[in-house]
Amino acid sequence: MKHIDVKKLLDGSLVGQSVTVCGWVRTYRDSKNMAFLELNDGTSLKHLQIVIDKVVTVGYENCSALGCAIKAEGTLVAAAKGDGVEVNAARLTLLGECPLDYPLQKKRHTMEYLRTIPHLRVRTNTFNAMLRVRSVLSNAIHKYFQDNNYVYVHTPIITGSDCEGAGEIFHVTTHGWNDGCKTQEEYNVTDFFGQKAGLTVSGQLEGEMAAMAMGKIYTFGPTFRAENSNTTRHAAEFWQIEPEIAFAELPDLIEIAEELIKFIINAVLTDCAEEIKFFDERFEKGLTDKLRRIVDSEFKVLDYTEAIELLKKADKQFSYPVEWGCDLQTEHERYLTEEVFNRPVFVTNYPKDIKSFYMKQNPDGKTVAATDLLVPGIGEIIGGSEREADIVKLTQAMEQRGMNFADYESYMALRKFGSCPHSGFGLGLERILLYVTGLGNIRDVQLFPRTVGDLK
Ligand code: 4AD
Ligand code: MG
Question: Which of 201, 289, 345, 446 has the fewest Cβ atoms within 10 angstroms?
């Protein structure tokens, strides 16, 4: 079906030409001799106005229903009123009707209601804008890494190990529900892989293996967590970007993370100016300025121990008490990044007992060379660390956590064959998207969110 994108028509370069455009009717305004409809085909947040002259335009009578799919043929002209362009229609053809029980009638629906119709909410302006920002952000992430000599690797989705050690793995099995195995062991060995298997929580461990040959790699794919936390920031399925860099220590990692975040925000400001303006007006006043400031600011680097002191001194009642050794809760993270520094903050050198087994142990014996990047309004968007390259220390950390060595044999082998200092982090795509759009709930930055108790 030959037709031209609305985005292309809106750039004005085809004024005066005969054009064909396809899309869905978003508004229809009728008057005595004329009618005006606005068409959207998804290529642009802005709609294209189609002008109907009831004497001249053929077939318009069938094309007035909100949501119907049509083809419009006519001449692209400069708009009669204001800037921009419109199409003087010669012929409209109905491609798909849309009856009156179409749920997206002309009013502003709540985000809660839209979550009940994920198959249709993509047709709203909010989702049109969000999906384009998500796409541009993803492209910018690839660009940053590709331009800096990283290799994009695809780590497996089905895995036998739990990278984060938090026991949040979704099991993968072909066993029937009543296969009658007497023990867990029997259940595992008779299963598809002959061992227990699950969906990956992180591509890091395999990413490290690739980095020990390719030097700089990144993953960009779905990860899964059976976390029973019903919050606005946790999804059971989310996309993670995980660079892993050989010959890099914690300060190098922090530099890379800051550069990446600035690069991708800049790309969104440039390529999605209209979408960001929309979110600024509808969801977060001052969003554009906030994003510009991020690009120009220097992120704060704050030692965990100092963070605890600041929290203890805070003139504020927290629900979770603060003591050296505690994990930072979202309320603590937000206090630091919003109220104390009002900019992104890398917290570094966390107590080893609250972090994962693979993090490099610092000489103090108490902390690890880890960092989380916290941002105002959200909290953590990145978690990463330098990796423990010393096999003795790694073994101790695994023993302390009661881990099963058989599951991590190849990971340990990395420390034997040409081990080197290396570091990596995980950036949550949905978390950065929340930050960049001002949308308040992770369920609204995914096409089909998967959260506890909800699989539409
Ligand atoms: O801090 P996390 O658990 O770190 C890792 O998985 C490391 N293996 C990463 C690495 O070093 N390669 O997760 C990393 C990021 C978090 O900072 C957050 O942005 C996101 O992943 N994330 C989630 N996003 C949405 N829903 C969830 N349930 C998430 N859990 C983590
Ligand atoms: Mg984390």
Answer: 289
Ligand 1, atom 25, lies closest to the CA of 234
Q: Please state the separation of Cα 161 from the chain's center in Å.
A: 24
Give me ligand 2 centre to Cα 373, in Å: 9
CATH number of 6-102: 2.40.50.140
**At 220, is the pLDDT very low, low, confident or very high (cuts 50, 70, 90)?**
very high
| Residue ranges of E strands in 147-290 | 151-152, 158-159, 198-199, 216-224, 237-246
User: Which atom of ligand 1 lies closest to the CA of 373?
Assistant: 17
Output the pTM of the full model. Answer: 0.96
Confidence of residue 399 (pLDDT cuts 50, 70, 90): very high
CA–CA gap between residue 122 and residue 110 (Å, rounded):
14
Q: Assign domain 125-166+201-444 one CATH number from 1.10.8.280, 3.40.50.150, 3.30.930.10, 3.30.420.10.
A: 3.30.930.10
Contact 208 CB / ligand 1 (< 6 Å): no
pLDDT, tens digit (0-9, with 9 covering 90-100), for 101-160: 999 987 889 999 999 999 999 999 999 999 999 999 999 999 999 999 999 999 999 999
Task: Report which protein residue has its CA nearest ligand 1's atom 9.
Answer: 426
